[in-house]
Amino acid sequence: MSAAPVTILDALLVGGLLAAAGLTLFVPRRSTAVVMFLVFGVLLAIAWTRLGAPDVALAEAAIGAGVTSALLIDAVYERSRRPERATGHHRQVLAVVGAVLAAVLAVGLALVLVDIGPFTSPGPGAADLVADRLDESGVSHPVTAVLLNFRSYDTLLEIAVLLVAVLAALALQPDATLRGVPAPTRTPDLLGLLVRVLAPVLVVVAGWLLVAGSVAPGGAFQAGAVLAGGLLLMRLGGWPGAVPASDLLRPTLAVGLTGFLTLAYLTAALGAGWLDLGAAWAGEAILALEALLTVSIAMTLAALFVANQDPPTPPVGVSSPERTR
Amino acid sequence: MTREELFLAVGAGLAVLGAARLLLTRDLLTRVLALNVASGGVLMILVALALRGGGPDGPDPVLHALVLTGIVITVSVTGFAIGLVRRIEGDLTEGGRR
């Protein structure tokens, strides 16, 4: 890659990112901080496209900015930030020392990173290695090949982490299901109309992202995030069954990891080795696995959101000046 | 200065800013946000390194795959952390969630 010079757009983007991050972390109102974080996520997605990473940009826009911000906005609408207790000299000294140390660390780290030399294979980089072996992977998009063939252990463990996280979030519920979360009862007409128009579109977009992942930016994560948005929209728009409360929930959450482990055992028992996909059928296996992963990822993200919803009535005795709903 | 160098430096700045705020604040939601900002900085370093380490066909796909994994892990950790924050603050202010 030839080194691209810094343009005005890059400078504006970087300035916006730093400003949004600073506001996210230091404004006193929680709602403002969360909106600033949403801005930060959108700017990050633009930054990924500037850095030639369209897969990452898609995932950031759908997951990083979309799902995370939805989680955060729902979490804070009625609570303001707890005031920092100004407990005198000790904490002020700590803050100043921390700021100085952080500045030194940031400058040092930046200098070291900028100073790292060319980063190409043979050497620490693996771009040429992936390009050479891409024919054996069953897909023609290098990022998908890495995720689901060359380094599928990473993805297997990632799906396991997702499952653990959502089970832990469910464990915080009274009976470890979503039954305790009331479904929205009253749906405004406009929202119902919007859902009827948007939900099929989102499902089609998710399916397209899933299939396109073999040859172009896209794949199970992006498709799962879009599908999660569709499920939540349907739940809010009067189809509470879109995110099942208990019986169907756990199988749907686990089907991705189960499929992945099944493939792993099959390849170990009948094939060349643990997750070693044969070039002849790797493409089909990857697509089938990604379809299962999409379902699990979508339900995981939707369940994380639903599990963090508040009961509709505000608790007695809590003053909530920011409450608007 | 090239584009990679700019984003490497800014990634370092964001990672340290988030990490420092994570360690120095007492507000639980700010900690969750700080973790996310720090994670954005780390991912930016990885994506900029992928650009630097790219071959003729584009940036290094291994690092892009790692970043995708990182984004998904971050959102799952964030979802669980928000659940814990609500639980803790609910218990502190209401004496029980329901």
Model description:
- The complex is a heterodimer of chains A (325) and B (98).
- By secondary structure, chain A is mostly helical.
- Chain A has three domains: 7-79; 87-116; 119-311, no CATH class.
- In chain A, 66% of the residues lie in helices and 0% in strands.
- Chain A contains eleven helices and no strands.
- In chain A, α6 crosses α7, α7 (152-171) runs parallel beside α11 and α10 (249-270) packs antiparallel against α11 (282-307).
- The longest helix of chain A has 28 residues, at 88-115.
- The radius of gyration of chain A is 23 Å and the shape is globular.
- Chain B has a single domain (3-94), classed as Orthogonal Bundle (Helix Hairpins), CATH 1.10.287.
- Chain B has three helices and no strands.
- The longest helix of chain B is centred in the C-terminal third of the chain and has 34 residues, at 61-94.
- Chain B is elongated.
- Residues 94-98 of chain B have low confidence and may be disordered.
- At the A-B interface, α1, α2, α3, α4 and α5 of A face α1, α2 and α3 of B.
Characteristic key phrases:
heterodimer; A: mainly alpha; 11 helices; 66% helix; disordered C terminus; B: 98 residues; mainly alpha; Helix Hairpins
What is the gist of this entry?
The complex is a heterodimer of chains A (325) and B (98). Chain A is mainly α and 325 residues long.
**What overall form of chain B do the CA principal axes indicate?**
elongated
CATH first level of chain B:
Mainly Alpha
Question: Distance between the terminal alpha carbons of chain B, to the nearest Å?
Answer: 56 Å
- CATH topology-level fold name of chain B: Helix Hairpins
| Protein chain pair with the most extensive contact, residues per chain | A-B, 103 and 82 residues
What is the rounded Rg of chain A?
A: 23 Å
